[in-house]
Every structure is written in C-alpha cells, then in structure tokens.
Design goal:
The complex is a heterotrimer of chains A (about 160), B (about 140) and C (about 600).
Chain A (H helix, E strand, L loop, with lengths): L2 H13 L6 H12 L4 H11 L3 H10 L11 E6 L2 H5 L2 H12 L12 E6 L11 E3 L2 E3 L4 H18 L1
Parallel strand pairs in A: 1-2
Antiparallel strand pairs in A: 1-3, 3-4
Helix pairs in contact in A: 1-2, 1-3, 2-3, 3-4, 6-7
Chain B lengths: L6 H19 L8 E6 L2 H5 L2 H14 L4 E6 L11 E4 L6 E3 L4 H14 L12 E2 H5 L2
Helix pairs in contact in B: 3-4
Chain C lengths: L5 E6 L2 H5 L2 H14 L6 E6 L11 E4 L3 E3 L7 H10 L9 E2 L6 E2 L12 E2 L13 H6 L4 H9 L2 H11 L11 H10 L6 E6 L8 H8 L1 H15 L3 E6 L4 H16 L4 E4 L4 E9 L9 H8 L23 E5 H13 L1 H5 L9 E8 L5 E6 L4 H8 L9 E6 L6 E3 L9 H6 L8 E6 L4 H15 L5 H18 L5 H17 L3 H5 L2 H9 L1 H10 L13 E3 L9 H5 L5 E2 L7 E2 L9 H5 L5 E3 L1
Parallel strand pairs in C: 1-2, 8-9, 8-12, 9-11, 13-17
Antiparallel strand pairs in C: 1-3, 3-4, 5-6, 10-11, 13-14, 15-16, 15-17, 18-21, 19-20
Classes of the chains: A alpha+beta (about 160), B alpha+beta (about 140), C alpha/beta (about 600).
Amino acid sequence: MSEVKQMVKELANQYGRSNESLLPILQGIVTKELHISEEAMIEVARELDMSAAQVYGTATFYSFLDTRPTGKYVIRVCKTITCMMHGKNQIIRELENLLKIRLGETTHDGVFTLLETNCLGQCHKGPAMLINELPFTELTPEKVRKIIIEYRNREISAN
Amino acid sequence: MTKVKSLDDLRKMRDDLQSKVNLREKSDHPEKMVQIKVSMATCGIASGAKETMNFLIEELDAQAIDTVVTQTGCMGYCYAEPTIEVTLPGEKPVVFGHVDLKKAAEIVEKYIKNGELVDGIIPVNYETVDEKNNE
Amino acid sequence: MAKYNSHILVCGGTGCRASQGEEIVENLTRAIEENGIENEVQVVRTGCFGFCEKGPVVKIIPDNTFYVHVSPDDASEIIAEHLVKGRKVNRLLFVDPETQQAVSESKDMGFYKKQLRIALRNCGFINPENIEEYIARDGYAALGKALTSMTPEEVIKEIMDSGLRGRGGGGFPTGLKWDLTRKVESDVKYVVCNADEGDPGAFMDRSILEGDPHSVLEAMAINGYCTGASNGLIYIRAEYPLAIQRLKIAIDQARESGLLGKDIFGTGFDFDVEMRYGAGAFVCGEETSLIHSMEGLRGEPTVKPPFPSEKGYKGKPTNVNNVETYANIPVILLKGSEWFSRIGSEKSKGTKVFALAGKVNNVGLIEVPMGTTLREVIFDIGGGIKDGKKFKAVQTGGPSGGCLTEKHLDIPIDYDNLLQCGSMMGSGGMIVMDEDDCMVSMAKFYLDFTVEESCGKCAPCRIGNKRLYEMLDKITKGNGTEEDLARLRNLSNVIKDTSLCGLGQTSPNPVLSTMENFPEEYLAHVKDGKCPAGQCRSLMEYVIDEDKCVGCTLCSRVCPVDAISGDKKMPHVIDVSVCIKCGACMEKCKFGAISVQ
C-alpha cells in the first residue's frame, strides 16, 4: 500500500468515515504532509466513498488547508487594518528581503513559505504573524530578523 | 480529581476550596504565602509572560520565599503586557505592568522582600460581579 | 515587613506624563525628604488611570484619596497637609458633576463604576487550567441549580426575562432562540458554540476561552438541558491554538469530575462536548456556514428559513450561540434575571465586552454596561488618542459595521442605537482612528477582506463586492471620478438587498457609512486627486526640503528608480514623474528633509 493510502486509512480509522469526518481528515493530512496533494484527495474520496469533486471543493475552500506544496514553516502575516496601522508592510518587506522570496512563494530549500492572512485576533499587539501554530506579536524588522535566524539555526542543528 | 456526584458534593467542594483560600490570606505566618498571578493569555505569552513566570518561580525558590505562582487569563491590560498581580499577605493585590525579567527582579527585591512599591503599577479600573456582591 | 505607611501613586500614563507628571514626582520626592518622612511615604509611578481629562492624577493610599488636575506646585502642600498633618487638600479633590460634592474616596467615583465584568468575571482571577479554582468561584453551581431544582421551561423563562441578546453580532434574544429549539420534536438535537471569531479587531472570545473556558462548558450543558440536547459541539478557529489547548484541558477535567458525561449530578442528564476546528474561513462564523463546515462541506451559507433551530446539523434541530453569550448564562441563573435586567439600557440588557484597538492609548479588553457612551469608552477608559492626535472616527462591528464620528460620541451604546447610526454592534471590535487615517483607504481594507472571505455562492457578493473593491482601489490611486461615487452608492445598496447571507448583506456598510460621514474626503480624492489624511501613497508627493537637505546623497543611492538627482553637498530634488512613492528615501534620510504631501 502506498504511503498516502496508508496515511489516509489511518486517519479514517481515527476520525471515522462519514461526511463530518472529511474536514478533520483533511486537517490531519495537512499536519503530516504540510499540504493536500491530488493523490491524497483521490484517496480520501475512495476511502470515504464520496466524489473526488466534493473532496476538492471542501479542501480548496479553507485558507489553512494548503493544496499547493508549502515549506516546513508557513509564515502567515496578518494583513488586517489594525496590523496595517502598526506597520505590517514594513514587516512583509523585511521578510521578503530576508527570505529572498515574494509573498505566496516558498524558499528554494523548502523551509519557509510566506503568506498573508486575515485577522489573527492579536489586534492590540500588531503587527502579528503565525509561524505554523505559534503567534508572534509586536513585530519590528529587528525582531523578525532574530526570529528567522533562530528558525534557520534550528534547521541547521536538526540536520 | 474528586468526582462530583450531586449538587451537595459540589457545594461541599466549593466551601472547602474557599476556606483554603481564606486560610491562605489570614495566615499566621506572614513570611509565607505570597500569591502571584501571571496573565497568560496569548497576548501575555507573546510578550514573554512565560519567561517572566519561570524567572519568578526560580528566583523566589532560590530566595526561599514561600510563594504560589499561578497562571491566569487575560486581565484586560493588554497594552501593558506582561502583567502580574502580586498579593502580599494581609495586603490588597497590586497589578504591575510591562514586567520583563529586569522588572520582575526589581519587584522581587523591592516589593516582595521589602514592601516597597515599584514604578509601573496598573490601577485597577473595574469591578467584577463577585466583588459587587460582597459590598 | 512593609516599611511604608503610605504610598503616593502618580499617574505615569502618556497623557499625564505630557503634562508634567515627572515634575510632580520630583517635587513630591523633594518635599518628602524636606519633611523627613522618606521612611514612611513612598512615591510610585503607575500606568494610566484612564481619567485623562482630569489629569495629572495622584492617588494616596491607603485612604484612597484621589486628587485631580495636580500641578507640580501642589506637591509640597500635599505632603505638608495630607501626609504630615492628615488633612486632605480639598481644592484638589474630584468634584462629582452630578452631586457637585467633592469625592474623596476613589471607590465612590462614578468613573470606577464604569466597567463591570460579568462575562470576564473570572478572567485574570483564576487559573483556567484548574477546574477547582472555577468551582471555588461558584463554578457549575448554576448547572446544579438548573438540573436539580428547575424545569427547562423555568430556566428558559429566566433567560428570556433577563433580556440577554446574542453577543455575536445578531442581537437575537437568546431565551427565545432556546425556546424555539426546545419546541421542535426530535430524537436528537445539538447545541453548538460559535468560537469562530473572525472579525478584524476582535479578540474577546479568544480571551474568554483562554481565561475562563469552563463558563462556556457549563452554559452549553445548561443549554442542552433546556433544549433537550445531549451533544455539544464547539467550532473553534484554527488561529487560536492556546484557546484550543485550554478548552481541551477544561473538557478533560470536567469529564473527570463528572460534570460532563453521563448522569450529571446524579439527575440522569447526559451531556458531552466535542471540539471541531475551523480552517481559516471567516464566513464560517455565520451559523449555517458553520453547520455545513462541520458536516464536511464547503462553508457556504444556506437560505433561512428553515432556521437551524428547526433543521441544522445533519438535519436536526441545532442551537448555535456565541462564546460571550454563553459566558453570561451561569451568572444569570445564579443572580437572577431581575438583577441582570437592571443593568444596561431598555432594550439591551447586561454588559458587552469590547476590544479597543487602533490609535487609542489603553488598547485592551473592556466590559461595560450597555448604555455607556462612546466618549466614556474611548476617552475615560481608553485613555484618549495616542500621541495626542485628534479623534476622527471609530469603526464598530468589523467588516459589517460602519464608522461613528465625533457627533456620535455621546450616544449610549446599544444594539438599536448603533444600527440607527448606520453601524452595528457586531461582535465588539472597536477600531479607533485619528486624523492620519484615510477613511477611503479604510473602506477599501474592509472590502479587500470581504472579497477574500466571500464564499462565492451568490453573485451579488462574489461579483458585486469585487467591483466595489476595484472602484475604491481606483479612487485611492487617484483615478476615480465623481460618477464612481454614485456607482459605489448604487451598487452597495443592490448588494445589501440581494445577498444570500449576512456577510454580503452587510459588506457594503463600511463604504456607505464612510461616504455618509466623510463625503469631503471622497470628493478630495476624486476631484482634487489628494488624500487629506496623508495616507494614500499614490496621491502623495515626496518632497525634499531644500533648507534641511545637506546633500549626503543617501536618498539618491537608495532610490530604486533613480528619481533623485543632486550633487554632493547640494540640495537634492525628486523627479515626481519617475517617483514610485516607495518611501525608501524618507526612511533613509537622517535630517528629516524628506516629507510627504
């Protein structure tokens, strides 16, 4: 059995095979594989006995279910009005410079993806961003530099 | 965790817990039982409340000051995070804002050990339902 | 252990500091030394008291005397009279405007009664990861009371009589909603907590879930008892990892204590709670979208009726309520509906939690009785506008709301008043704006948000909002015309009337509201090609002040399009036709010679 098939089977065993299980299973796939590939979607459709179109429809609706491959660390910078007032454009420029990519792209080594997202609920401490699940607030270009260096060091020591 | 099987169980549990809290406050040993609450909602944690809390626990332990340091939710003073509330035995609670490690050390040395207030107190500007009840 | 008998608290908030707070501290300290009482009296600086119009503010403890409008020259008198002789300085006391009496104790000041925490009663007081602390503060007692001594109808009547209305934004009477669900016959029913708080600027629900998760669980169980459901579902957004963690712990602890699960309090009532996670879709805050999302479908709303209370999750009666609404329920049952209905205004009872954000000094969460005015919220509790700038507008209700201006500052806040002013309560986010914020830009922001979050099901929202955004974008770039303004208004009204769900029906509100309140700004953008607030980059010109420029050439070197010319040590000039207005030159200039006009 291919890896993907095995993973989907395990998730279906955990969450069930009814319609309501679709979203938790897709979320489980994102946690393991960082994105939902077409192959995974077809497998889920097969396992849950529903049309692939429905799986595709649900998967593409939610912004936290990435259907394109992402890096290991997904950086989501809040672009809402309060964070804008506190200078999020500067932060995005800093990140683009540090990572040498534009918004929406992933670094060559597959480590970082840079995205914008809507309100994270940290409005009094803007600008804010999420790296995977961790929130970082009151960002300045200096702080952002330190954070990225820390993550890079972590990657180096992991290898 | 004790299982609550009836409403009477719950009432008894509540009374037990409340008397424990009272005892703590009216303790005969003033050098014991300083209470510190650290605001640990996402806003606090993102501003370093975890480091502050760990520092306080270690420092007070090293200085052998009997303290209970607990985490709590958002106190509402989000602009001054990290915030902590310190209650010395027999005193009213005092809230301090912008408590980084340096300020935390200052609070331990000056307020907790000497009762000397430190700059950066946040004035409480609200009352809760329970307090209103007790008026 | 405490060395000092008295403490003098001097407000160190930005407003008071600007008006000589530091000098007051210095003078007080000197006067204390001159009187030889430095071992008995200590001077401390505090954060903002919030009473900024009456600043500088000084408070003496332990007798809680509150002095207002203190000047540095008063310092020696305060020390000599109050601290040494024990006589209050009457002329500095706060005079209550209603009674015209001097108030000496801060507790009796109306200002301190402005905030009343009901939904936030435990936040900041208990450890949310310890159920015992919740129980010590009467936790789960309301559930016990309901299960053992009240019928479901009696509980619903209490909630109806209290006047509690949905705090998620709709303002629908909660008791009525519960009653409607109760009356539907079904073998299975569901109770849902909507924790998908997505409004920009709102973080109230997050704080309640992180600080007092048990209050929500208790209220859901009470809801189940009333409506006849034994299944609870919490739909929480993925962007709140800490709230998710605390809820999980709370659910486990409640189950271990027998307060969730089978045969609660030995009454035979079963109720348990399951968590479901959102995945980054604002529209799932709408109740039908939320239900569909839980069913594994795209989060698209469906027409109401049928309402979820008749036919919801999996076709069964479902009762969806907001986190803050739930947080109020246990207190209402314990203290009674009469107590609750005495707080607030005639049609909006109780308190509301607001998240103050934007250009105000004391950003954070506040909870005030309905009927409090905006002025009190922004200037008294919020500490006024940052950096001493001028108040321009406050946006309430997120992307569904509108803006309120200076002329609305004294309106008592409640559901109906805000609707009348062209805005709405929404979930409670309040974004304060000052003179440097452009209202057209603000409307564009909200449209950008709505366009992205629109589910796409109905044409008015999917296509209409996109066109609105494009028009606003044109206007902020200086290419708009007066016809565009008329088109904006017409299209907005069409979208409002024809959209399928609340998102589309309210998305044009920011546009209509800003056009109504700031027509001059829109006109300035289209007619004169200028942005009065100075925010729309495309309409600004970057100019070098000849007198300040020393010719260091830093700016011309950093300009990405070579728009700056000039010789060394000679004033430089920006070629406006080439300039792309990136602002890099202004950032680099150390002499403040570059400005935006």
